[in-house]
Write a structure and sequence with these properties.
The protein is of the alpha/beta class. It has 12 helices and 18 strands. The structure holds pyridoxal-5'-phosphate. The site of pyridoxal-5'-phosphate has 15 residues, from helix 10.
Length: about 375
């Protein structure tokens, strides 16, 4: 029997809807990325666009050589978590150098020769993609920075022509970056990219101060790293300076879940206290989330619906072994990357609170949003 006291304690662990992150898992991931970087002699940057929550930046910052950012706001926010020996790589289709950035330890990558002529710094390259195994489905293609029609970066053939004319002049880009992969597990693609890079730019690579491999890597320890090593060895035949890489997604995705409660039930439709606007990509790319309570073999199928007025506020259909009831909790797993940073308050529905979980401390409320936060977004004061 559950006593009143136990019930109160359990209920007060957290209130839905909420993101819960596992601090131990974040530590594990960043340490594993760090040992990956040491093993391959790379400088590790965290791409904070994946998740810019203060706790993430605090946990990661002691283990990284810096951050990768996409805007002045990210740069200024990220700087709060860095020490003076750490760098910030700023890369964006449209660089924006406000006065506030002038004292930051920035490496920059311009997306085009026009932008580079304006701002200097490094250049972002685009490789003739996609490499094999990419663009497997619509979802991946929507994320694939290396797809054929990508506007991200100067095509490497164009840059090779440009640099071969410029080579005797003093004013060269400081460094070269690219970001060509999306959830890459098979490093043969990285090896192919290294071959294209060295074939085109090999004789010129030593003219640059740094290289940056971008993100899009899955860095689990069990993955075969042989081709990654081969690709790096090839690049290092031509370039002996520092090489950065900047994963985002992989470092945070698995450490966060979204807890929600079933609030109503209409036939086989379950209405939740959250909305796809708390995880906007669900609708944008029709990607089904992993639900902890789902039993794929279960014979009962229910549609999970968000609580906004939007007819398509749906998380999709899930199978259950037992009939879910009003008041039951459900848990969407693997939502740490590109979710909190994109969540919105459509319909005035509040954003989920954020809790930290760790084995030592259990659940700790880290952030709760109030009506004032909503007003601040829409008021002019
Ligand atoms: C320039 C750049 N670097 C790094 C990343 C991080 O990639 P991921 O989160 O897939 O590891 C991105 C993602 O968009 C990016 O645009």
């Amino acid at each position: 029997m559950v006593t009143g006291a136990m019930l109160v304690e359990e209920i007060s662990l957290y209130q839905t809807p909420c993101f819960i992150y596992n601090a131990d898992e974040l530590e594990r991931k960043i340490k594993s990325a760090k040992s990956w970087s040491l093993k391959h002699n790379l400088h590790l940057l965290y791409a904070m666009k994946a998740n810019s929550f203060c706790d993430v930046l605090e946990i990661f910052s002691p283990h990284v050589n810096g951050l990768s950012v996409s805007s002045p706001f990210e740069a200024l926010w990220g700087k709060n978590f860095l020490t003076s020996d750490q760098v910030i790589h700023y890369s964006s289709p449209l660089l924006d150098f406000s006065q506030a950035l002038k004292d930051l330890p920035l490496l920059t990558s311009a997306n085009s020769l026009n932008q580079w002529n304006l701002f200097g710094g490094g250049i972002r390259l685009k490789f003739p993609g996609p490499f094999k195994n990419q663009n497997e489905n619509e979802f991946q293609s929507a994320y694939d920075p290396g797809r054929k029609d990508s506007h991200l970066g100067v095509p490497i053939e164009e840059f090779t022509k440009y640099i071969s004319h410029k080579v005797n002049q003093a004013n060269l880009p400081q460094g070269l970056s690219w970001h060509s992969f999306c959830e890459l597990k098979d490093f043969s693609e990285f090896l192919s990219l290294s071959e294209v890079l060295t074939k085109n730019l090999g004789p010129y690579l030593q003219l640059f101060q740094w290289l940056n491999l971008g993100g899009g890597f899955l860095l689990e320890e069990g993955i075969n790293q042989e081709d990654f090593k081969k690709g790096l060895d090839l690049i290092r035949q031509y370039f002996t300076g520092p090489i950065y890489f900047e994963p985002g997604y992989d470092l945070v995705e698995g450490a966060f879940c979204l807890k929600t409660q079933i609030k109503d039930k209409i036939d086989n439709k379950l209405i939740l206290d959250t909305s796809i606007n708390h995880l906007p990509e669900v609708m944008q790319f029709k990607d089904k989330l992993v639900l902890k309570e789902e039993d794929p073999e279960g014979e009962q199928r229910f549609q999970l619906l968000g609580c906004s007025c939007l007819i398509s506020d749906s998380f999709g259909e899930y199978n259950f072994h037992q009939t879910p009831l009003i008041g039951d909790e459900l848990t969407f797993l693997y939502v740490g990357a590109y979710s909190m940073v994109k969540a919105n308050r459509f319909n005035g529905i509040n954003l989920p609170s954020i809790y930290r979980y760790s084995e030592n401390e259990g659940y700790v409320l880290r952030k709760k949003y109030f009506f004032e936060d909503y007003c601040q977004q829409f008021s002019i004061k």
